[in-house]
From TrEMBL:
Protein's name according to its UniProt entry: Transglutaminase family protein
One Pfam entry name: Transglut_core
SMART domains membership: TGc
Domain of life: Bacteria
Source species taxonomy: Bacteria, Pseudomonadati, Spirochaetota, Spirochaetia, Leptospirales
Span of domain Transglutaminase-like: 176-252
Species of origin: Leptospira gomenensis
SUPFAM superfamilies reported for this sequence: Cysteine proteinases
InterPro entries: Bac_transglu_N, DUF2126, Papain-like_cys_pep_sf, Transglutaminase-like
Length: 1102
């Protein structure tokens, strides 16, 4: 985002007597080739009686020549400069083909023009020696010119240490190389001479350097200044054919950017001196003052709120807590924030694949960091997650569980194999023996005889058969991912061996009658128990069909009643200790065998304990203590996996799971603003420490969030306290209000919106549903008693997508009171359309906003009928202006109801979702281009190697154009020759419209024959002169033809890519006819350029 700064530079000379001053030359005005936008400039010179003339030197630099007709005791030069520091990509240039690689020869005409920049002015012995050293290091060998200048710049920066040197003049190259230190002007002069000795044209540049304090301190690399800073500076520029002059700063070792303001660029330093002149001999006092101040900065994702505003938001958050307490409403709020890698934005696991090795390692790192903050005395469990069609393996899930009563669930962290302090416990010399020892120890803590422990083996016959089908050349990559997985699986099993036990199983069942664990014998058909072939843990590959066709029944408990307190850790340990003091038990074998099984298995040098399903939390706590005591007795660290504990409000849990392209953190719920602010801040801070990011950008620089969203889940800590089950009208109010205000859907959304998105609005593509929704609302309003099951059934089949999926809905009630079972009867409502906010403070404001809306509906139910907008929903409310106007109505409604929010609280969201592309001023009329939203259609089915798929048509884009100072009647605004349907905003002279266009031609798309609309040329057409009097251009891709292969590495590069695609000039030249009308009743707010006539069209056909 643009930051406007004011730079003040004052230089003062005080003389002890009146002196005559020679004409002075002042070079303190930004040079013509300055890339940073200069808003205003002022030069004031004292004494005031003087004659000042602006001129340009032979090299094109601005300089003021000042003549002083009278003697004076004071010379004061004051410069005030205001600039907009937009991000500049120093690598955004092309070179001529012959100059792509170094060394090269300039063309004759260019060499003649650059002659004064090519001749070295120094050739001392130390410089010659240094040149020889550089050539031996490979700097003179053939390489890309960009690599050459970057490496040379860095080398000079490393070899010449930076010092502040107040003496006048510039050191010679010999002095700098001998001392190995120098000021910025010394190292820059040295670099200029080195470049010339290499045959490259180079010049010396003096200027201002503006460095602003970073919003976020990087984990690695230079941290930057602690405060905003400016100073006179010097650097070098090298001339590259095709690119022009490229700035190189040997002080930092970087290329120059938006903070470098050139004042004078000359062949020699003496011609670039900021102030040059003479005075009569006298005692002189010299002073200078430099300061830089931010005078305007729009909210940005790295600093969305100033401290004063953030403190005010926190004050209102605490007030909201008191309000909820007064209302007696018990609300908990949680979420599912998502993150991507900060170091590998190109990787498939961070773009579309759900699984990846690096993703798993980063998730573990983040989990242990969060565990230390949220959950002391907790345990980690690595379980099997969801398995979606088309994915070769199930996803994993890392869960962190702890008791709410403060008792330790797991005491010794060193016994967790993945813990940072578990390395000494994780060295296994004999995996089979260690597994058997651990399994035996678990049997003893459970009070079970060792005879019930069952060794399990890999199926040798199956793998021998599979081995025979493998090719001889094992190194050759197989075409199918499934074949590749099968091959690696077989090789792993063959390496492990068939005759050794693969794992040990312990059938366990908790008998509530005798209040102890039981086990049973297994009698498989074969002499041994052979695992089902596969990659999953052994606990999921037990061949139960070969053991028995009937197993002991498993008790199930379902109740909404408040549960008693959990037994203390000490009490459970005493119970386990008593078992250890008694002899192991044998059990009656008359009944059916036990199916629930605990399994001990070694994989990848780590012991895994697979936990069986258990009916109650009390039983699970007993089992956990048994496993921990066994691990302690065996002296090994373990990884817990298998079935998670039963859902119970007496324990807390948060999870980290993989999703396509992201890591998803299922954060545990908060019951107050202070709690959610603390948790959200810690989560974002620890994710940064784990080298995870919340920012992701498209190839053209547009921000897209992580792509995984930030689902917000609202309910209560227990289902019986859920406000949606206690007050069914709350859900009815919420859904109706969301339908009335499209801004709630689109201001916080991701880029993939619309009917076929993962979180469509109820009225997107299914307007008929609104009629059924009214009937459901009527029942909620009229019935005196609406039981929980009815609340769910009334809305379950309405809050779905076009395929009927109850999960893929903007407001999902999957976990409200599902008929499927207790895991879906949690009284929760999930908001699934929210994109991942890039800053934790934005996330906090978003959650606070949702809580305020729920409180507003609790006090004043919203019982209005739905609005049927038809095509206006996407034609109008995908434009930023109308989204913001609608959202201001929401803010005003909340303020009226006693929940004050202000527009400034949500400007960061607006700028994130609808960034400005550029603006220009022509003949008193301002034109602003801003990103708008565009729903992408899902096309028909296509056959591929994996079966059948449906492509998303991403060919279309939409932008908003807004004008101010508009005079209706005289002017018209056109885009590519077609009139833009501007509509008044209600403010005099201001109007707005949308432009929809085809940005590119993917393989699968609607209307493949239509041409791409690039660039978009906006003309301000004057009906009086019948020609364009100015305009601007928007490019879909880089206007210079630069084709990016990788995503932007950070927000700075992303911003530079966006800026490069807008030009504040480039109107249609010559006399033109009036813009043509392309209006269509389907989209009165938007110009759709796809209606424009294309090549090969028949003439005179409407």
């Amino acid at each position: 985002m643009t930051i406007r700064v004011a730079l003040t530079h004052e230089t003062t000379y005080r003389y002890d007597r009146s002196v005559s001053l020679s004409p002075h030359v002042i070079r303190l005005r930004p040079a013509p080739h300055c890339k940073t936008s200069v808003v205003s400039y002022s030069l004031k010179v004292e004494p005031e009686r003087q004659f000042l003339n602006w001129q340009q030197d032979p090299f094109g630099n601005f300089q003021a020549r000042v003549v002083f007709p009278e003697k004076t005791r004071l010379l004061n030069v004051l410069v005030d400069l205001v600039v907009d520091t937009k991000v500049i990509n120093p690598f955004d240039f092309f070179t001529e083909p012959y100059a792509d690689n170094f060394p090269f020869e300039y063309e004759n005409i260019i060499k003649l023009e650059l002659s004064s920049y090519l001749i070295p002015s120094e050739s001392g012995p130390l410089l010659k020696s240094y040149m020889s050293f550089l050539k031996k290091e490979g700097y003179g060998s053939r390489k890309r010119i960009v690599d050459f200048i970057v490496e040379l710049n860095r080398k000079v920066s490393e070899d010449i240490g930076y010092i502040i040197r107040m003496e006048p003049g510039v050191q010679t190259c010999e002095q700098s190389l001998e001392k190995r230190t120098g000021s910025c002007r010394d190292s820059s002069f040295l670099l200029v001479q080195i470049l010339r000795h290499f045959g490259l044209a180079a010049r010396f540049v003096s200027g201002y350097l503006i460095q602003l304090k970073a919003d976020r301190i990087p984990l690695e690399g230079p941290k930057g200044p602690e405060n905003d800073f400016t100073d006179l500076h010097a650097w070098a520029e090298v001339f590259l054919p095709g690119a022009g002059w490229v700035g190189m700063d040997p002080t930092s070792g970087l290329l120059t950017g938006e903070g470098h303001i050139p004042l004078a660029a000359t062949p020699e330093p003496i011609s670039a001196a900021p102030i040059f002149g003479f005075a009569d001999p006298a005692e002189t006092e010299f002073e200078f003052r430099m300061e830089v101040k931010r005078i305007a900065e729009s909210p940005r994702v790295t600093l969305p709120y100033a401290e004063a505003r953030w403190n005010d938001i926190k004050r209102r958050g605490k007030s909201l807590d008191r309000k909820m307490l007064d209302l007696g409403i018990k609300i908990s709020i949680g979420g599912e924030p998502t993150f991507i890698s900060d170091e590998d934005r190109q990787g498939t696991e961070w773009n579309h694949e759900a699984l990846g090795e690096r993703k798993f390692e980063l998730s573990k790192d983040l989990m242990y960091r969060l565990r230390g903050e949220f959950a002391s005395g907790s345990l980690l469990q690595f379980s099997q997650g969801k398995w979606y069609p088309g994915e070769p393996l199930p996803r994993w899930s890392i869960g962190c569980f702890w008791r709410k009563d403060g008792e330790n669930l797991w005491e010794n962290s060193a016994l967790l194999a993945d813990a940072p302090n578990a390395s000494s416990k994780n060295e296994i010399s004999d995996p089979r023996k260690t597994s058997e020892i651990l399994a035996g120890a678990i049997c003893r803590t459970l009070g079970i005889d060792l005879s019930y422990m069952v060794p399990m083996y890999e199926d040798d016959l199956y793998y021998i058969w599979k081995e025979g089908n493998l090719p001889f050349e094992m190194e050759r990559e197989l075409s199918s991912v499934y074949d590749s997985l099968e091959r690696s699986r077989i090789l792993r099993i063959l390496d492990k061996g068939f005759k050794k036990e693969a794992a040990f199983a312990i059938p366990v069942y908790y008998n509530y009658i005798i209040d102890e664990w039981e086990s049973s014998s297994w009698n498989p058909r074969r002499d041994r128990l052979f695992l089902v072939p596969g990659d999953s843990p052994a606990g999921l590959r037990i061949p139960f069909a070969s053991i028995s066709d009937r197993f002991r029944e498993f008790p199930h408990f379902t109740s909404l009643e408040k549960k008693p307190s959990l037994p203390s850790r000490k009490r459970i340990e005493e119970k386990v200790r008593k078992r250890l003091d008694l002899p192991p038990k044998s059990f009656d074998e008359k009944g059916p065998p036990i199916q629930s099984t605990l399994v001990v298995e070694e994989r990848k040098g780590m012991l895994h304990v697979f936990l069986p399903p258990v009916p109650s939390l009390e039983v699970w706590l007993d089992l956990i203590v048994c496993v921990e005591q066994a691990a302690l007795a065996s002296g090994v660290a373990i990884r817990l996996e298998g079935y998670e504990p039963p859902t119970d409000e007496r324990i807390e849990v948060f999870k980290i799971t993989p999703d396509p392209g992201v890591i998803e953190v299922n954060l545990h719920p908060s019951t107050s603003f202070e709690e959610l602010e603390l948790k959200t801040r810690i989560l974002y801070e620890k994710s940064i420490e784990s080298k995870l990011s919340t920012e992701k950008f498209q190839i053209d620089g547009r921000a897209s969030g992580t792509g995984g969203g930030n689902h917000i889940t609202v309910g209560a800590l227990t289902p019986d306290e859920s406000p949606f089950l206690k007050r069914p009208d709350l859900l009815r109010s919420l859904v109706t209000y969301w339908q009335h205000h499209p801004s709630l859907s689109y201001l916080f959304s991701g880029l993939f919106i619309g009917t076929t998105s993962q979180s469509p609005r109820m009225d997107e593509g299914r307007e008929a549903t609104l009629y059924e929704f009214e009937i459901a609302c009527r029942q909620v309003d009229r019935l005196e008693n609406v039981p929980p099951w009815l609340v769910d059934r009334l809305f379950r089949n309405l809050l779905v997508d076009v395929t009927g999926n109850t999960h893929r809905s903007e407001i999902s009630i999957d976990k409200l009171y599902s008929p499927a079972g207790t895991s879906g009867r949690l009284g929760l409502v999930e908001f699934r359309a929210f994109e991942m906010p890039p800053h934790y403070r934005m996330s906090v404001v978003q959650q606070m906003f949702v809580l305020s809306l729920l409180c507003r509906f609790w006090e004043n139910p919203y019982r209005r009928p739905p609005i049927r907008r038809g095509t206006e929903l996407h034609d109008k409310y995908l434009l930023p202006f109308y989204v913001w106007q609608d959202f201001k109505e929401v803010l005003e409604d909340l303020k009226t109801c006693g929940y004050p929010f202000y527009e400034e609280d949500f400007i960061p969201f607006f700028e994130f979702r609808f960034p400005e592309y550029g603006r220009t001023q022509k003949d008193g009329i301002g034109i602003e281009l801003r990103m708008a939203l565009e729903p992408w259609d899902v096309l028909g089915e296509e056959a591929n190697s994996f079966g059948t798929s449906r492509a998303v048509d991403s060919a279309l884009e939409r932008i908003q154009v807004k004008v101010d100072g508009w005079t209706q009647g005289r002017y018209a605004l056109s885009c590519n020759g077609f009139e833009v349907p501007l509509r008044s905003t209600g403010k005099i002279g201001e109007a707005v419209a949308g432009v929809r266009f085809k940005a590119w031609s993917p393989t699968f798309t609607l209307h493949p024959n239509l041409p791409v609309n690039n660039p978009l040329v906006f003309d301000l057409w004057d009906s009086w002169s019948e020609r364009s009097i100015g305009g601007c251009r928007y490019y879909v891709s880089h206007p210079g033809g630069r084709s990016y292969d990788t995503f932007p590495v950070n927000s700075f590069e992303a911003e530079s890519r966006r800026i490069s695609r807008f030009a504040d000039h480039g109107h249609t030249a010559g006399e033109t006819g009036a813009p043509q009308n392309l209006s269509h009743p389907h989209s009165p707010y938007t110009l759709d350029l796809r209606w424009a006539p294309g090549p090969g069209w028949k003439k005179n056909v409407p």
